[in-house]
Backbone:
C-alpha cells in the first residue's frame, strides 16, 4: 500500500511538472537581457547617425544662405527678421550637434532600459489550458504548443504567423525564454524572464 501511494505521488509530481501544465497561467515580464546589446546599440547608432548628419548639413546650408541674404538687405526690419531666423537656426544646429555627440552605445542602452521599464508593467502573456494564448500588450491572440522535448514554445497568431521561442527555464513561477528577432540586417538576441502572476 505504501509503495502504491509513493508511486502515485511521484507520478502526480511528474505530471504536474510537465511544461504544458507549468506554462498555463498569466505571466508578467520581469526583465529583458539583450545578449548582443553592444552590437544592437551600434546598429541603432548606424541607422540614426546619417539622418542627424544630414540635418546638421541642411541647417548649416540654411545658416550660410541666410547670412548671405542679410548682406544684400537694406531694410532694417527685414535684417532684424533674418537675424532672428539666424538665431533659431543656430539653436537648431546646437541641438542637432548635441544629439550627434550623445548618440553613444551607453546612451542607447539607457534609452532601451527606460523604454523597457515603462513597457514591462503592461507586458503580459496568458497561456490557457485549451492551448490558446494572448499577448495582452500587443493584443495578439492565437494558439500555443510545446515540443516533446520541452525546449521549444511555438506560438501561432490569428494571422498564422508562427514564432519559435527556446525555453531556457520553466518552473511553476518562473519562465526564461530565448528570443531571436530580426530587424533588417540586424538580429536581436534576448532572454526574457517572466514571473507567474496567477
Residues:
Amino acid at each position: 500500500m505504501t509503495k502504491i501511494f509513493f508511486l502515485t505521488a511521484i507520478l502526480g509530481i511528474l505530471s504536474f511538472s510537465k511544461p504544458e501544465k507549468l506554462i498555463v497561467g498569466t505571466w508578467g515580464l520581469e526583465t529583458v537581457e539583450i545578449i548582443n546589446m553592444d552590437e544592437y546599440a551600434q546598429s541603432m547608432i548606424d541607422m540614426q547617425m546619417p539622418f542627424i548628419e544630414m540635418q546638421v548639413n541642411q541647417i548649416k546650408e540654411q545658416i550660410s544662405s541666410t547670412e548671405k541674404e542679410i548682406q544684400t538687405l537694406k531694410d532694417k526690419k527685414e535684417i532684424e527678421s533674418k537675424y532672428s531666423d539666424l538665431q533659431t537656426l543656430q539653436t537648431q544646429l546646437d541641438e542637432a550637434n548635441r544629439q550627434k555627440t550623445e548618440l553613444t552605445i551607453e546612451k542607447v542602452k539607457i534609452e532601451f532600459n527606460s523604454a523597457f521599464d515603462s513597457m514591462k508593467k503592461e507586458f503580459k502573456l496568458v497561456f490557457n489550458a485549451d492551448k490558446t494564448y494572448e499577448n495582452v500588450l500587443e493584443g495578439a491572440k492565437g494558439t500555443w504548443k510545446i515540443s516533446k522535448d520541452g525546449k521549444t514554445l511555438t506560438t501561432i497568431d490569428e494571422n498564422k504567423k508562427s514564432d519559435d521561442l527556446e525555453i531556457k527555464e520553466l518552473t511553476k513561477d518562473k519562465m526564461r525564454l530565448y528570443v531571436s528577432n530580426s530587424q533588417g540586417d540586424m538580429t536581436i538576441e534576448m532572454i526574457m524572464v517572466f514571473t507567474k502572476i496567477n
Remarks:
- The longest helix spans residues 37-72.
- Confidence is low (pLDDT under 50) at residues 5-16.
- The first strand starts at residue 25 and ends at 34.
- The radius of gyration is 28 Å.
